Amino acid sequence: MSISALQKARYEYKPKLPAVLKNKLDKVVVEFGKPTESVADQAELKALFKNTYGKPEALVVKGKNENANKQIKVGVILSGGQAPGGHNVIAGLYDGIKAGNKTSSLYGFTGGPSGLIECKYVELDDKIIDEYRNTGGFDIIGSGRTKIETDEQYKASAETAKKLALDAVVIIGGDDSNTNAALLAEYFIENNVSTRVIGCPKTIDGDLKNEFIETSFGFDTACKTYSELIGNIERDANSSKKYWHFIKLMGRSASHIALECELQTRANICLISEEVEAKKMTLRQITDDICKAVVKRSEGAGNFGVILIPEGLVEFIPEMKVLIAELNDKMALKADEFNALKDFAAKKDWLKSNLSAVSFETFASLPEAIAVQFLADRDPHGNVQVSRIDTEKLLALSVEARLAEMKKEGTYKGKFSSYCHFFGYEGRCAFPSNFDADYCYSLGVNAFVLIASGVTGYLSSVRNLTAPADKWVAGGIPLTMMMNMEQRHGSKKPVIRKALVELDGAPFKAYAENREKWAVETAYLYPGAIQYYGPSEVCDQPTKTLKLEQK
Predict the structure, then answer these.
(1) Domain residues for 372?
(2) Of 338, 163, 164, 314, whose CA–CA distance to 251 is shortest?
């Protein structure tokens, strides 16, 4: 396996740990606090999770733990989209297991949850683990988006757990994956399977968090990666002074990435989906707001600027949300009829007869290249794949058209030129920042402590993350604590609630206080590349979001 000089150097990096996890692991135990409740729908969830609901908070403290030295067998799964640091969670888990007992085993289920269902795995050893320490990606065992939800899948998972005599399964994933972990933990107890289930909080979107999970891993690295690219574009825009850059960023349901990147780079405009929804802002209103900034800058700073756009924005614009919902329904109910249509013109005529007048008017107003994307193949659940809609181009074209009107009206005299970008996959597998390398390794070691303490249905928790690593607090929280009931595909189901951008929260307020100035002035920040070596204030800092939230 060929490696770069940076990769070779990163192999040698020793992740920092909370002070309590630096002890010999047979000298730390879990101390339980008060019982917990779910964030909503307590009665329904208590009925669904008879064995795992209401469990207490867990805190890792010094104490004697004889179980830490027992020989155990553990399985680990990478679930969902990649996030920087996943390899370090596995490395921390592996080191914890081997520190407890060198004869213990860690099995990596390949290809995500399907590996557990189909009993496809690789036994991880020193050689494999050492090739992936402090590196990006999920390629050590691969990932997948299979959900364990049918009776057959649950039974197959239980058979795998019994066949391998697993003491525990660790599921590394986001809100959906850890909802799956909670359901699996309940199923195992209900069916007398002794295997315990522990989750680890992963998602670059930053929407898996609460009081005890201060951030999900990968968010720090992804935002720093995107912010470097945005800063480079800002520098270029400020040099040439002739282009407006529309930059779409990952974040379908939540706009945490866009907001964090805005705080790191001070782009002229940052759209926040949650604010657009709260204010019921139409596409025309969003367009007009951007045009106001373009006009003001053309009179002062120049005909250039940078705009940040969360990828899920289109679903939060009221008329677009209604249109997408109608398209999903009609294209599902009359799939054969729609799929038989040969060209866009025929599909547009069909939609005129099948959509409401208001939604068809919205659809007809879209540029044809964008409208075609609204009709593209649906995801496995029958929903439009919003990440494939060029929202950044839709906004750029809308602004261009509106400015042309304003020129005719005599209210705009500048020249408008735009470039569009989408930063997504560039951040998912980047070399993890020191923060993510340390945080993920700590989550893995901590997961072993939870296993050795006999708990199941818990999420590994490491908090106090704005302090130096040795002051971080390790523990765990019941997965049911983060859940509520939501309508999914025609019925109410238990799911971990997504944490969206709070408009009264400190990060958004920090942006709101400055956005009028940043829109008109050129106040760009250029963060540069992620630094791995040097002063702690350069190399080990968490995100601005985390600092503001924990202030």
Answers:
(1) 220-428+505-550
(2) 314
How many helices and strands (H and E) does the chain possess? Answer: 23, 15
Structure tokens at 59: 């805190």
Q: Which residues are catalytic?
A: 205
First vs last C-alpha separation in the chain: 44
Alpha-carbon distance of 86 to 138, in angstroms, equals 6
**Which CATH number is 249's domain given?**
3.40.50.460
Is 396 contained in some domain?
yes
In 3D, which of 184, 210, 209 has the Cα closest to residue 197? 184
The whole-number pLDDT of residue 297 equals: 96
Cβ-contact 29, 67 below 8 angstroms: no
24 beta partners? none
Residues 34 and 130 in one domain: yes
Q: How many alpha carbons lie under 13 Å from residue 270 in its C-beta half-sphere?
A: 30
CA atoms of 183 and 168, how far apart (whole Å) = 14
Q: Which of 47, 23, 177, 12 is nearest to 492 (CA)?
A: 47
What is the tally of structural domains in the chain? 2
The predicted structure's pLDDT at residue 491: 83
- The list of the chain residues with pLDDT below 70 reads 1, 380-381, 489-490
Q: Which helix (H) or strand (E) holds 78?
A: strand 73-78
Q: What is the pLDDT of residue 377?
A: 81
Domain match, 194 and 207 both = yes
pLDDT averaged over every residue in the chain: 96
| Residue 418 and residue 288 in one domain | yes
Q: Could you write out the DSSP letters of every residue in 145-203?
A: -----SHHHHHHHHHHHHHTT-SEEEEEE-HHHHHHHHHHHHHHHHTT---EEEEEEB-
CATH number at residue 437: 3.40.50.450
Amino acid at 4: S
Q: Assess contact for 46 and 82: CB atoms under 8 A.
A: no
Cα gap 85→436, rounded to integer Å: 6
| Same domain for 409 and 277 | yes
Residue 493 lies in a domain: no
Reported in sequence order, the residue ranges of 394-498 that DSSP labels E, i.e. its strands, are 418-423, 458-463, 473-478, 483-488, 491-496
456 and 537 Cβ atoms separated by less than 8 Å? no
Cβ(399)–Cβ(291) below 8 Å: yes
Instruction: Give yes or no: residues 195 and 227 share one domain.
Output: no
- Do 196 and 229 share a domain, yes or no? no
Amino acid at 319: E
Query: 3-state DSSP call for residue 261?
Result: helix
Q: Are residues 398 and 472 in the same domain?
A: no
Is 100 among the domain residues?
yes
pTM of the model: 0.96
